[in-house]
Amino acid sequence: MGEVRAGHTLGRYELLVPIALGGMASVWAARTSGQLPRIVAVKLLRAELSDDPDFEAMFLDEATLVSQIHHPNVAETIDVGEEDGVLYQVMELIDGEPLNLVLRESKARGGVPLPVALRIVGEAALGLHAAHELRGRDGKPVGLVHRDVSPQNILVGYDGSVKILDFGVAKAASNLQRTKVGQVKGKYAYMSPEQAGSEPVDRRTDVFTLGIVFYQLVTGRHPFLAENEPATVRRICDKTAAEPPRTLVPSLPEDVGRIIMKALAKPRDERFATMAELRRAIEQVSLAAPLATSDELAALMQQLLGPRGERRRAAIQEAMQIARERSIDTDYPPPQPSSPAAVDPPGRTLVERGAMAPRSSPPPGGRARRWLVPVASVALAVLVALGGAYLLRSSPGPRAPHGRGGLIAPTAGSIKAPLLRAARAASKAVRGRAAPGERAAP
Fold it and tell me: pTM above the 0.85 mark?
């Protein structure tokens, strides 16, 4: 694929404006085709990742799996596909900012208030627990682990919502890079000891990394950050526990400090066994340190990053207007070609892979068949009428009855009436309003 610009289409998605750029992908706001366009987020993976056939296969499979997670604290995966050698993922567009920006902006204002920190971590735990509990078609847990829980992958909405991002990309990349010597997937500063040591991981890996995020929210510091990445990894993997957060923030409630330290336990057996346990622990301490409401979180987001959100919304609206002007007719788009390849340019999507139910749509040639039936009915009725007229002209006229029960030749009126009724009914069937008691000719 060449340079991607606004107006470029990937399958049924038209790119509008770039909204984020990361190490693995760029993210665009896009609109879907059709009479009721929806604004979505389309993530384009880097070319070097898309070129790897192993990564491509795992990415498509993992994204198919992740699309089955439906939870208010998880960003919904709508579609995934490949086109012109580029893999892309389609997600709901969330009007919000990544948590790392919230941390940066709040630092100058004395840090994130504790009730807000408790709410963010508690909501993130709910989303992660929903992913961990995902089951396959056989009813068994699939063992999904995020493996990349970090402030960049926790999105805070301007409406006060909290969403987890990037399940599929993180797990697929982990599977790929695990097979390559010397490579470990994930941000080095947000790994569990077992993950950094290339050991098998489970949901407690996500508990540890969410504990790192929790620590940052209440103290403003990373618990293991050192002068460089290798030193940071060594601090994560050694047996020395993190410095208790209350040594940095003496006003922090003791129960909150204990929750953080339990999530950050180096032996995984000493951590919370599930995200649900972590969430319950937060709810128990919220009596002394109540959680912020979604309205309070929304108000904080507006104070910290409101102008940034307004600029992005304005850019998307402007791009939408340009896209409308580029369309021939937004309200009544021209009929699409009946060929599936023409409707959706080359590329594989979840619908085509059978992972997501497609919308009901007429089969190829369906429009033609809908018009063929009434037109054929009218033609048949006209032919029958002409045949009847010919019979009338050639008829010798009425014959006298042959006694009781004898046959009587049909008169012109007895022939015309049913023919006219049939023709009238066929004509009204074309207009879709047959009169009561009338029906189209067979």
Answer: no
